[in-house]
Amino acid sequence: MNLSNQEKADILVQALPYIQRYNDKILVVKFGGNAMTSNEQKLSTMRDLVLLAQVGIKVVLVHGGGPEIDAVLDRMHIETKRLNGLRVTDDEQMSVVQMVLAGKVNKDLVASVEAVGGTALGLCGVDGGMIKAKVKDPELGYVGDIVSINPKPILDSLNAGYIPVISTIGYDQTGKVYNINADTAASRIAGALGAYSLINMTATKGVLRDPKDESTLIPEIKIHEVDALKAEGIISGGMIPKVECCIEAVELGVKNVFIIDGRVPHAILIEVLSDKGIGTLFCKED
Question: Is residue 110 included in any domain, yes or no?
Answer without folding.
Answer: yes
